[in-house]
What does this fold into?
Amino acid sequence: MTDWSWIPPRSLDADLRMQPANGLDFELVAAGPRRAKRAVLMLHGFPELNLSWRHQIAFLAERGWRVWAPNLRGYGATSRPEGLAAYRLDALTADVAALLSALRTESGAEEIVLMAHDWGGAIAWDAAMRRVRPMDRLVIMNMPHPYGFARALRLSRAQRRRSRYIAFFQLPRLPERLLGARDALAIRRVFTGMATNAERFPPEILDIYARAAQRPGALTAMLNYYRAAVRLRGTMSGRDPVVDIPVLLIWGTADTALGQETLDGIGAYVPHLTRRYLPGISHWVQQDAPDLVNAHLADWLETPVPG
It folds into this structure.
């Protein structure tokens, strides 16, 4: 199991377990009352863990939410299937559908929220577009709508330049060697080098990310998200791009991987969109500025869903 020492002691009824879903076992942090009117599933990004939600887990649990934060397939101690096809977007979205069903069954929640960042955001957009399970709200942090991202890659030279790392990740073995070298120094630096508030990433937090990335097969699984997205084209075909539930988009404007041009035209796909920009905050938004993010979450989540 992963090091759980980061779980805030004020988290209510913390439950650390392996959760079966979609034929896999997910390493899961659950917090808050087991039976609750409101529940949230949190999806992390690359090269993160559910650790990335450490500031939000306790915040929402203390407000009566049932909170589930899994490590996605291939991450931490979650099942790590082999082969590129196991990391197609369809497979990742099927994981989320199964987890949402399990969360609703456990909590009995009347309101279900999907909250996601980075690669978790890509999966969450897909789950919402495909309507794989009923959900009431969607919260996305620093991940554009996929159609907007595709448009930016076509039209924006700057975004193509920012996304060059994706081409590097297509190489066999070399990315794994470089990311894992010197006690996963590159993994550590991807956080501290991009963060606005590097003090939010102390050595004990970076150690957890680095140790998880160095598990046998972990880096290959993590990189397979990018490899499957590029090589197994067509995973987005047939999707209705419109997300018709309320969506909160929280965006750190100092994101060096995703430019704000990726958000151009998003209103055509998300008619019930609320945007909250955090000037000067990095891609790691919920870790880099947790107090601001939590304030926006509290404000938006307490606003009734339009009837």
The beta strands are 15-21, 24-31, 38-43, 66-70, 111-117, 137-141, 247-252, 273-278.
